[in-house]
Amino acid sequence: MSAQFTLPSLFVSHGSPMLALEPGKTGAILSAIGAALPKPKAILMVSPHWETVSARVGNLQKQRVIHDFGGFPQPLYELDYPAAGSPPLAEHVARILRDGGVDAGTDGSWGLDHGAWVPLRYLYPHADVPVVQLSLQPHQPPAYHYQIGRLLAPLAREGILLIGSGSFTHNLRELQRSDPTGPVAPHTLEFLHWFLDHLQSGDLESLLAYRSLAPHAVRTHPTDEHLLSLFFAMGAADDWKRFVHLDSGSTYHSLRMDAFAFGSQADLLAKLPAAA
């Protein structure tokens, strides 16, 4: 990979842990993304399932999979993702954040939760790219996570793929669990279209204030940790106003599975069938 090449940043919706066993449209899209991008030297992943008060960067030499869910079929608990970690990258990330005024440190207590390893099984199925996970601070606003992305954006020029994993909409109380492929909830489409309109107009101020401005914002995200990683991905791009939206549809009626690529190289994904 050329030193001048800047990888796009990604936001991916990981949905239910059952995505690992039932790929559907989302699994196919994630696989296509991994195939379309130049292979990164390493991955820095933010997931809403590792929440900490201050930023923590996983520094395991070898990753361990965390099955952080309950009540699912036994085969799900037998899945692994035996990727390497990267303590040097973890320390590099923590140092960048500290130099930017962010309280950050390395941490060996975690691993890869399902927000990380489930989509990675499709993006890079051979687990042959080192992965470092960065924790999320759910008490902080979108602007904070956007700034975390801005601080770490130069890593993309070093061949590091920066990924925010979450869910474009995430109200578990409204899921129709018996009907994973049922009709899409109309209010989630209204929320999506508002978001797309403001991305296309480059209106960062409104996007960062989405909870008070977007239609159905609190309904689609009673708590917004699953969308905060999207703002990280926007900040991590060299030019977030250049983006590709990959329409992965919905599962369980109201859980939207959209993915986004941000940056000057996002067009690498523009020809994928789901690109909108």
Shape: globular
CATH class: Alpha Beta
Percent strand equals 15-25%
Please, how many helices? Answer: 10
User: What level of helicity do the residues show?
Assistant: 25-40%
> What can be said about the biggest beta sheet?
6 strands, mixed
CATH architecture: 3-Layer(aba) Sandwich
Order of helices and strands: EHEEHHEHEHEHHHHHEEEE
Compute the CA-based radius of gyration: 17 Å
Number of strands: 10
Keywords: Dioxygenase, Metal-binding, Oxidoreductase, Zinc
Cofactor: Zn(2+)
Domain Extradiol ring-cleavage dioxygenase class III enzyme subunit B: 11-240
Pfam family, one: LigB
Describe the 3D structure.
It is built from ten helices and ten strands. 33% of the residues lie in helices and 17% in strands. The strands form three sheets. A six-stranded mixed sheet has the order 5-2-6-1-10-7, sandwiched between helices. A two-stranded parallel ribbon has the order 3-4. The chain has a two-stranded antiparallel sheet with strand order 8-9. The longest helix is centred in the last third of the chain and has 15 residues, at 186-200. It has 276 residues and is of the alpha/beta class. The mean pLDDT is 94. It has one domain: 3-Layer(aba) Sandwich (Protocatechuate 4,5-dioxygenase, Chain B). It starts with 8 loop residues before the first strand and ends in a 14-residue tail after the last strand. This is Class III extradiol ring-cleavage dioxygenase. It comes from Herbaspirillum lusitanum. Residues 11-240 form the Extradiol ring-cleavage dioxygenase class III enzyme subunit B domain. InterPro entries: Extradiol_dOase_DODA, Xdiol_dOase_suB.
